[in-house]
Design goal:
single chain; 5 helices; 2 domains; mainly alpha; elongated
Length: 173
């Protein structure tokens, strides 16, 4: 037996002993059974000396904080884009209704002023949401274990310009 395999055997024995202790003490709650399948497939990007640790974390359904934050950023971005879509759909629908409903043209000046105010509030809210997402991206980038996992921040000027470009012509200032 060479020195490397002897070292690996000692490491494996110590690791198995610590896992057993953690399971018995309740510090590690691994759910196994017919509905819980252990994934033993190796990730080729994980260094060989870290694979056992990664298996343990993955099979106990543990996710590092930076991964959870990454999912939160994705959800926030989706909600942020959905809110913009809903806002502009509302503006278009309201303008369409004004042109087709009885007496709508007489009220158009008042309605357009109200829609402009609503859009100003939505723009401020959209900018705040963008700033919060960028703060999360900065926090995420500070905690990821490898530079290749970092995310680019959103450029506020570009994003807000895209937001403003969607404004119907009736409401341009």
């Amino acid at each position: 037996m060479d020195a490397t395999s002897e070292h690996e055997d000692k490491f494996r024995i110590v690791a198995e002993h610590r896992i057993r202790e953690a399971l018995e003490s309740g510090a590690l709650d691994v759910k196994t059974g017919p509905d819980q399948i252990l994934d033993l497939e190796d990730n080729p990007y994980v260094p060989a000396d870290m694979r056992m640790s990664y298996h343990l974390l993955k099979n106990s359904h543990y996710r590092p904080d930076w991964m959870v934050l990454g999912d939160e950023i994705d959800a926030d971005l989706a909600a942020w884009r959905r809110a913009a879509d809903q806002h502009f759909a509302f503006l278009r629908d309201r303008l369409d209704a004004l042109t087709t409903e009885r007496g709508g043209l007489r009220r158009m000046r008042e309605e357009i002023a109200a829609l402009k105010q609503r859009h100003q509030r939505a723009t401020a809210h959209h900018a705040q949401g963008l700033a919060e997402i960028n703060r999360k991206i900065h926090r995420y980038n500070a905690t990821v274990p490898a530079p290749g996992l970092m995310r680019g921040t959103l450029f506020a000027d570009d994003e807000m310009h895209r937001f403003a470009d969607r404004l119907p012509a009736y409401l341009t200032y």
